[in-house]
Design brief:
Distance between the termini: 55 Å
Bound molecules: adenosine-5'-diphosphate, magnesium ion
Strand content: 15-25%
Number of strands: 10
Helix content: 25-40%
Number of helices: 8
Mean pLDDT: 89
Oligomer: single chain
Length: about 270
């Protein structure tokens, strides 16, 4: 008599109202364990803020979700479907667009080409040439429409200021994203006026409900203005998940300080 096969465990329920779900995602670089099991949800149309110390692994998580890195373990579920994002291109086909902290634009390409990166227009007819004229025109219109000012759409990205580059990168990703927009410190290189512009753009996009957004920023005031919910990352995990409506900058700071204290005590106890 053969042994009774074990009942297969049913997959945990996947909620259709989630734009994105991350389950137990792990990542190491050589001996350095960066992500120890990230669990995160992003609801449809939601703006989720992600905070954590430098080196906490925020950018690494973003790079996994944008297909740039592959995770070692765990699952990424987009719109209810488990996906394996094999490349940035692959993530794009799932409607995911990213503004990276460290590789926002291609410096040698003109503004209009950067704006259409990965979604280039081509001419009609049997030979698909790049439709540079069309891309230039649309770039001018789009940048005017959203109030982003550059000297010329023909200027190479490296000729722009840090803030202008970042604004172009955000504009590009916002235009291209159909489901999920990942913004990794989009305001880092920006002055107050540019930051305000980008915050308003992201708020507009969020209120349209068209895409769901993850934004990383160290500035709590920005996050409280932009986000519906905030997650705090520490030690390779999400340790705090709070709706903005139910917390304040002071409360969140207090929560983080006490969790750091706990972590510190754990380390000291382990060493004792
Ligand atoms: N490609 C890489 N190779 C090796 N180590 C990396 C790589 N990318 C990031 N790291 C390391 O992983 C840790 C987390 O980095 P990162 O995800 O950039 O953190 P954060 O964005 O929260 O500041 C850091 O210690 C960083 O040095
Ligand atoms: Mg980072």
């Amino acid at each position: 008599m053969s042994e009774q096969p074990a009942e297969p465990t049913p997959p945990a329920a996947v909620s259709a109202d989630l734009a994105l779900e991350v389950r137990g995602v792990t990542k190491r670089f050589g001996a350095l364990v960066v992500l120890r099991g990230i669990d995160l949800v992003l609801h449809q149309g939601e703006v989720l803020g992600l905070v954590g110390d430098n080196g906490a692994g925020k950018s690494t998580l973003v790079k996994i979700l944008s297909g740039f890195h592959s995770q070692d373990g765990g699952e990424v579920i987009v719109g209810g479907e488990p996906v394996r994002l094999r490349s940035v291109e692959d993530a794009r086909t799932h409607g995911i667009e990213t503004v990276y902290q460290d590789l926002a634009l291609i410096p040698q390409l003109p503004v209009y080409m950067n704006l259409f990166l990965g979604h280039e227009l081509t001419t009609m007819g049997p030979l698909h040439f790049l439709d540079k004229k069309g891309m230039r025109k649309l770039s001018r219109q789009y940048l005017d429409e959203i109030n982003v000012h550059v000297p010329s759409v023909d200027a190479e990205a490296e000729q722009l200021s840090g803030g202008q580059r970042q604004a172009i990168a955000v504009a590009r990703a916002m235009r291209a994203a159909t489901k999920i927009l990942l913004l990794d410190e989009p305001l880092a290189a920006m002055g107050a006026r540019e930051s305000r512009l980008i915050i308003d753009l992201v708020k507009d996009l969020a209120s349209s409900g068209r895409v769901s957004i993850v934004v990383i920023d160290h500035n709590y005031a920005h996050l409280f203005e932009l986000c519906d919910r905030i997650n705090v990352m520490q030690g390779g995990r999400i340790i705090i998940d709070q709706p903005v409506a139910e917390t304040s900058i002071e409360d969140l700071t207090e929560l983080m300080v006490s969790s750091y204290r706990r972590e510190l005590e754990n380390v000291q106890n382990a060493g004792a």
